[in-house]
Design brief:
- The complex is a heterodimer of chains A (140) and B (138).
- Chain A has 140 residues and is of the alpha+beta class.
- Helix content of chain A is 26%, strand content 29%.
- A three-stranded antiparallel beta sheet of chain A has the order 2-3-6, with no helix packed on it. In chain A, strands 1-4 form a two-stranded antiparallel sheet.
- In chain B, helix 1 links the parallel strand 1 and strand 2.
- With 138 residues, chain B is of the alpha/beta class.
- Chain B has a single domain, classed as Rossmann fold, CATH 3.40.50.12280.
- The chains are: A alpha+beta (140), B alpha/beta (138).
Chain lengths: 140, 138
């Protein structure tokens, strides 16, 4: 696999909106804006990306990766449109229907040695329901 | 002068030389087919058909860029090479940066990358050559 100087790709299913990538990007190529409550625009502008790989290195979930496709030569009309645009949305807690940030499997694998079914089921809940669930299991 | 010969001229406006090395050391190698595009590298701005600009336009190099732009012919294809002349790159919003390039001249093709890979540069050159042929035939 030749990942040297490949374009940045983004997987919105894995993103937890921590905004670390936007913070570490030296060229300011990543822009995360809240368009409406619980909806975020995630934009990578390829015409200012240096492909340094800082975002890939610091991404806690592996949502941003370097691909094998090289950066492109585009006409001037596409200067502002050669972007990777994604909409990251909150998911819903199945218990209380509160909006919550989805916890991807890669995140759980970082935190737990063995990711079993009870753990994945627990992290589908929102933080509040998660606390209540754990409390019930331990005390009652 | 050969009929379909295309002269390529390069302006460095305070680049880190990454793009210049890519251009001169990689693209002029026969492997990448610079000659098969009928391109020749020139050092005279008056002869230029395709102008490649590298570097984020610094305050120091701005008067030189403007002087060179005046010497260029009216009919030309301007190529911004690397992210610096396109958007300012990592130096964007810095105190000594006058860029991006489209504040000074109408750009036709942008070659993204820092530095762009030889394949991307050839891709951009092919697009620039096609634009130049359109301009000549029109």
């Amino acid at each position: 696999m030749n990942a040297y100087k490949g374009k940045i790709t983004f997987d919105k299913e894995q993103c937890v909106l921590c905004q670390t990538c936007a913070f570490v990007c030296p060229a300011g190529a990543i822009n995360i804006t809240c368009v409406e409550p619980q909806r975020y625009d995630f934009i990578i502008w390829h015409n200012t990306c240096t492909v340094c790989g800082n975002c890939t290195y610091f991404c806690p979930t592996g949502a941003i990766t370097l691909s094998n496709t090289l950066a492109e030569a585009t006409p001037q009309s596409e200067k502002y449109t050669s972007i990777t645009a994604n909409m990251v949305e909150y998911s819903e807690c199945p218990n209380c229907h509160e909006p919550m940030i989805n916890v991807p499997l890669t995140m759980l694998k970082r935190g737990f040695k063995n990711v079993s079914q009870p753990i994945t089921a627990l992290f589908k809940l929102c933080p509040k329901c998660r606390r209540e669930h754990t409390f019930k299991q331990r005390v009652l | 002068m050969i009929d379909n010969n295309i002269n390529v001229y390069r302006i460095n406006t305070g680049s880190c030389n990454g793009c210049d090395v890519e251009l001169l050391a990689s693209i002029l190698v026969p492997k990448f087919g610079f000659d098969t595009l009928h391109c020749t590298y020139t050092n005279t701005p008056e002869e230029a058909n395709i102008v490649i600009v590298t570097g984020s336009i610094t305050t120091r190099s701005k008067p030189f860029l403007e002087a060179t732009l005046k010497r260029l012919p009216d009919e030309k294809v301007v190529v911004a090479m690397g992210i610096c002349p396109i958007t300012g790159g990592v130096f964007r919003d810095s105190y000594s940066i006058e860029g991006p390039l489209d504040r000074f001249v109408n750009v036709d093709v942008n070659i993204a990358g820092c530095p762009p890979s030889p394949q991307t540069i050839v891709d951009g050159l092919i697009k620039a050559c096609a634009l130049w042929k359109e301009k000549v035939s029109a």
